[in-house]
Design goal:
Elements: H1 7-27, H2 31-55, E1 57-59, E2 62-65, H3 76-92, H4 100-120, H5 124-140, H6 145-165, H7 170-180, H8 188-200
Antiparallel strand pairs: 1-2
Helix pairs in contact: 2-3, 3-4, 3-5, 4-5, 5-6
């Protein structure tokens, strides 16, 4: 891609710097201002996620990215996730509704359209991550364990059905198979990671040395 061996190093360094700057900025905000900002950014990111099926960029059969002329190509769901967590926490901790199960329903209605949009991309990995993030939040909020595990089993059944019987999500099954059986192929990333570790030795060889 470029004669500069440090291309990806500097690229990641820029994004890490932006990320750290964002973390420090948000950490210095008062809670009330953070909640207001989170609601606004959640709405913006959710609208961006809604644009993915319409104007999103397709890569290897999945349409997950937006590519505007004035911004780098990005996945809206990656920016949406932290603000989604704050929104769910606000619903579960709300004092305006005393019934905890109503709060569970409202929080689920919040993530449901996000899950539908992710499944349509398709992105089953992010779908599972979003759902289990919500699941973890309602678990620590004090849900009845019987209902928790019944619902957990129900969701696992749905995810298993999608992976094993819906052709659109066959790539997930291929990844699982290659993880447990490396000889089955489709494990390019794992092979390259192992090769880099083996060739690098204990102290490594530096950038470009093992190529």
């Amino acid at each position: 891609l470029n004669n500069n061996n440090y291309l990806f190093f500097f690229k990641h360094l820029i994004f890490i710097s932006i990320g750290l700057g964002t973390v420090f900025f948000l950490s210095y905000l008062q809670k009330e201002k953070l909640y207001i900002l989170s609601q606004f950014l959640f709405l913006i990111c959710f609208l961006s996620l809604c644009l993915v099926p319409l104007i999103g960029v397709e890569v290897k059969g999945s349409k997950r990215w937006l590519d505007f002329l004035f911004l780098p190509k990005f996945q809206p769901i990656e920016i949406l996730k932290p603000f989604m967590i704050i929104m769910i926490a606000l619903i579960l901790s709300s004092k305006s509704k005393s019934n905890l199960y109503i709060k569970y329903l409202l929080s689920f209605l919040l993530i449901f359209p996000i899950i539908i949009l992710l499944i349509s991309q398709p992105d089953i990995g992010q779908t599972v991550l979003i759902f289990f993030t919500w699941f973890a939040l309602i678990f620590v909020s004090g849900i009845n364990l019987f209902l928790f595990f019944v619902f957990f089993g129900f969701v696992i059944s749905i995810i298993s059905y999608l992976i094993f019987f819906v052709p659109k999500f066959e790539y997930i099954l291929i990844r699982i198979t290659s993880f447990f059986d490396p000889s089955s192929g489709n494990n390019y990333q794992s092979e390259k990671a192992s090769e880099a570790i083996i060739n690098g030795g204990f102290f490594g060889k530096g950038i470009g040395e093992g190529i």
